[in-house]
Amino acid sequence: MTTKELDEKYGDSLWQIQENEEIKKEIFSELITNLYDNTVIYHERNTVIAHVETIVIDAQRFSIKVDRVITFQEIMPRMTARMNKGFSIGASWSSLRYNKGTFSPYSGWMLWIDPELVKKVIELVEEGRNEEACKLTIFK
Known about the structure:
- By secondary structure, this protein is α+β, with helices and mostly antiparallel strands.
- It has five helices and seven strands.
- Helix 4 (115-126) packs antiparallel against helix 5.
- It is globular.
């Protein structure tokens, strides 16, 4: 399943209901295991291309360990140094939300995992077209 198929099948209705934890886990698990080059786009103050080292999924939550990043939108330079050392992303299924290709907990960070989108963002950043990459993600 892709995020486009997810949008067509569910819209955002299922992601607003806490009781759908098992369905959220099932759908997210399928999507997160089909990444482009083990890579996601992550935003928490800065927006980065993040290489995934490991993914852990259990009944209550998921967590992703990131081992390296390429920053393409920097808002907090202090955070860049911290992110470059690697970090973890995670959330409980009850707090996970979805809206038009973007996963996020109730508040905080945002995550894009669609393989086609991630590939396109990587290509744009490699070409120095960071503003266009932002328009596909954080400024969408």
